[in-house]
Amino acid sequence: MAEQGTGPITDVSALHGDFWPEEESIEAFLETLHEWRGHKRTDPAR
Hints:
By secondary structure, the protein is mainly alpha-helical. It has 1 helix and no strands.
């Protein structure tokens, strides 16, 4: 870390990503996440 000039994260808000529209549901996010990972969901109960 010292060689790269970085240190520990002291503010967790620095980890917040802004890649998903707020108006989209969590179900849509999870479905897309599974697709990105190569897992096609066939059973909506899982």
